[in-house]
From TrEMBL, chains A, B:
GO BP term, example: monoatomic ion transmembrane transport
Assigned keywords, A-Z: Ion channel, Ion transport, Membrane, Transmembrane, Transmembrane helix, Transport
The keyword Flavoprotein is annotated on this UniProt entry: no
TM regions (residue ranges): 81-100, 106-126, 138-157, 163-183, 190-210, 222-244
Pfam families registered for this protein in UniProt: ALMT (PF11744)
Region (Disordered): 502-521
Native source organism of the sequence: Trapa natans
Membrane-related topology note: Multi-pass membrane protein
Protein name, UniProt field: Aluminum-activated malate transporter
Amino acid sequence: MQVHEPVFPPTSLFPSPSFKLATSAMDIESSSGPAQGGARAGGALARIWGRVKGVPVMAKDKAVEFATRVRKLGQDDPRRVIHSLKVGLALTLVSLVYYVRPFYDGYGISGIWAVVTVVVVFEFTVGATLSKGINRGCATLLAGALGIGSQYLACLFGKQGEAIVLASLVFLLGATATFTRFFPRIKARYDYGVLIFILTYSMVAISGYRVHELIQLAHQRLTTILIGGATCVFVAIFVCPVWAGEDLHRLIAGNIDKLADFLEAFGGEYFQCLDEINEKSKTDKTCLQRYKTVLTSKNIEESWANWARWEPAHGRFRYRHPWKQYLKIGALARQCAYQIATIHGYVCSDAQVPCAFKRIIEAPSMKVSSEASKALRTCASAIKQMAEPSCASLYVENAKSAVEELKAALGAAQLDDSVDLLEIVPAATVASVLIGIVDRVEEVCEEVIELAKMAHFKAPEKQQQQQMLHRGAVKPVVEGGGETVSVVVDVPALADRAECCTKTTEANSRAPRPDTDPPMK
Amino acid sequence: MQVHEPVFPPTSLFPSPSFKLATSAMDIESSSGPAQGGARAGGALARIWGRVKGVPVMAKDKAVEFATRVRKLGQDDPRRVIHSLKVGLALTLVSLVYYVRPFYDGYGISGIWAVVTVVVVFEFTVGATLSKGINRGCATLLAGALGIGSQYLACLFGKQGEAIVLASLVFLLGATATFTRFFPRIKARYDYGVLIFILTYSMVAISGYRVHELIQLAHQRLTTILIGGATCVFVAIFVCPVWAGEDLHRLIAGNIDKLADFLEAFGGEYFQCLDEINEKSKTDKTCLQRYKTVLTSKNIEESWANWARWEPAHGRFRYRHPWKQYLKIGALARQCAYQIATIHGYVCSDAQVPCAFKRIIEAPSMKVSSEASKALRTCASAIKQMAEPSCASLYVENAKSAVEELKAALGAAQLDDSVDLLEIVPAATVASVLIGIVDRVEEVCEEVIELAKMAHFKAPEKQQQQQMLHRGAVKPVVEGGGETVSVVVDVPALADRAECCTKTTEANSRAPRPDTDPPMK
């Protein structure tokens, strides 16, 4: 919605350096030409001339700006360009069918439905295309059959009665079918089908054809829709397919990553009054903003999950991949993002908290947020690689023990007499919300582990496990009495981040872990 | 997605009391009939018979359940039923046109486009219908003209070249137009138009007609689309219209109301450990949940604002009503809702905060939330009634002075030695986030006042103002140096809530107000 002003004031004779060279000869001519006419007339002429000359520059600027936007749009997601070419391809393919003489002789003008089907059904993702195509096909079949039945029925009422019966039926079915579109479940999955049902039924019922003509028409329409639909599905699946499921998969992983970005950058940003001003501060700030898209991604998640259900098995996804579980994870990530939004308000505010108090909570707070960030990061990369998030629980446990440290630090702070409650409340709030975030992060991790189970994500590679057996003493995971008992292993140089292990301390034991690391800077 | 089990186990002979009476005679017959066949065969038969008998009960249950859902859907928003009837009406109207003999003789099968247009264009709101109708009409006109031009051009290349040129043009225009659909602005407003452009252009270019036939075809298609579109717009506007703008207006007011609901109920819920358990607790809890829909209403707000722009002046809304301002208010309300979500977590959690500390912050916290709630409530009802939110600023000022009291209470708490920081952190966090919420509420109020200015909401009625002049000393509002100077007036028994006034204390003066009320229970 930006209004782009021309780059120079229209009255200027020398619009822009790049243009000056090309028009300098004309400038001299025009400025020396009407010298006898007096300064006023000359000024007006010059102004008009300046404006006329401005047009190509403006046009050029607009064109450059437009080209930049087009390029950006394509660069942001190159699949957009590919999709556009695919639509062109499908249209050309279907029009070739149209040019085949025997086909044209058989179907004539009805062949146009194939083109209509391609234009209307072809969507960005395979799932959406399949959903629309199948909806369109089934609805046409059903409505066609019903329409022909209605014509039979209407015939029984004589010439006058026929029109009345048909009009009533159209009213009745049109209204009823429209009402079903308000059912949330039908709205989500069959909205387009109901629309096509009303469309086809009305067409068949109103057209005024005799029944034998109708059957031919219905047959032609169905065949051409099948040709159009098949072309769409063929091009969508076999030419650089875009899978809604894969997009959902990546979106959820990306959203969790964005939350991790915030938690990773947050400590450095919030406690920076204590350190020398970080040079990376500016780049960190974009990290602190990224979570915002998570707040409003509900609708797109739901659409993609809906389309993903229509998709056949592809790549790493089986037919009955647990897409609903992604929605669950997405909802939890969003709840986490709400709390992050609250913390973000405190990071941005300029309320001065005494550095002495900040220093007390700095180390444990940073550890909480960094461990929570690592847990989320592990979940995100586990989803991306479709591997079990083996380290996530460890990081959650670390975060929890850091929470205990943070609580201890808060408890100890009270003893200090120099602390004024009113001044420290903002920082205490940040700490408290951070503690709440750890609970959300734990829930996200649990649901990601559940997803890994449901979708049979692969276990960490055997080689890796064996390496671990050599480095530390791994006791195999024992399942007893519903509680998972497992063991911490310290493997110093395995992953890029701190430690990596199979699983972690005894479930639900809240005792401070003996091997908590010194707080990270 | 609920799976409804049959009400009784299929093996039971006596499915349900209501069914028992009706079938008792048959039961006797069937159970006494095959007595010679032994217990086993009898048991199997009885099971099968039980199942067969179960079918009508199941069918009845399903039907009842379905009817309940249909009724609920209709009761939730009766306009849904009306909309369905309107679609039926528009379809019947357009089919009547189709039955008119001179029209049919002229257009023949092309008349079907009128029906297609009605089905495809008729939407729930007037704005959406207009948007689709205008998009469809303009796109058809443009694409038809371009298509005929392309046919002229293609003719120049001979019989063989024609097909190639046309196929290339279809590919090129199809791909380009599809790409433009990715521009966010085009996506939001002209998506359907671009779709129809591709559709019509392909149809015209591929159809293989001669040019003079094409012009006739284009003419017919345009006329029938106009008839269909006009029918839609006529029915949409003149039969119980649903205006997107009005819905947006009500949605935004409703969202603000939901936030006010939470803030009103929150104090009672959070501090209830101090009072006897409230009997209204259960109803209050639904008040605490309502804000959740605000978190995810962004998409619907944007769609409605988009459609509202297409709507003509209607009811209390002029043609250029500032719909964008509603989006601004909606976004601020959502930010407020994020913070409320954080507080809600603390209300639900069972962390035990010492009652002594809660008692210290109870009064000012409840005053903050109740005044903020009143400010929001005033804004919401001002939007609903399209009147200036005259009292909102006063309530914001009250809330701010309550914030000062709350801060003072927090400052005083430090002096007490019995307070343990760790234990009071959750309550302090709630207080701190509450203080943050007041800032958001102030922003919402400012934008609502801005909306009132932009949309020329009516000032509080003259009678009311005169009443006030009699009761208190009103100094007229003075605008000086960019700052609005105004005056507090105490009018005890005017509105239903506490005080009501014209405007409030000097802008930006942060000094505690002298006339702060005693904290409300």
